[in-house]
Amino acid sequence: MEVITRMVADRPVVIFSRTTCCMSHTIKTLISGFGANPTVYELDEVQNGGQIERALQQMGCKLGVPVVFIGQQLIGGPNQVMSLQVRNQLVPLLIRAGAIWL
């Protein structure tokens, strides 16, 4: 879990993803569509992707990718992100994290 903490430190939005995952693409597009520039780690391309994925699972992310952190806080997967969006809570969260300015 320490590796995850280092990877999300000082970054307003971090998405752990896979290049072949359509839900990862959807979440990256949604967040980028608000003007945010998320840091994206493609677990199938980084050298220690398996280790990172196991650490995310230990943090409670049982369904794989995508996994989203906003303001160094674990948000979760696509269901959690879309739930925030439907409740109009995603943009305020991105603003508080300094990911976007309105």
Automatic annotation (TrEMBL):
One of its GO terms (cellular component) is cytoplasm. Its main location: cytoplasm. Keywords: Cytoplasm, Redox-active center. PROSITE patterns: GLUTAREDOXIN_2 (PS51354). The keyword Cytoplasm applies. InterPro entries: GlrX-like_pln_2 (IPR011905), Glutaredoxin (IPR002109), Thioredoxin-like_sf (IPR036249). Residues 13-75 form the Glutaredoxin domain. It is found in: Cytoplasm. It comes from the Eukaryota. Belongs to the glutaredoxin family. CC-type subfamily. PANTHER family: GLUTAREDOXIN. This is Glutaredoxin domain-containing protein. The lineage of its organism: Eukaryota, Viridiplantae, Streptophyta, Embryophyta, Tracheophyta.
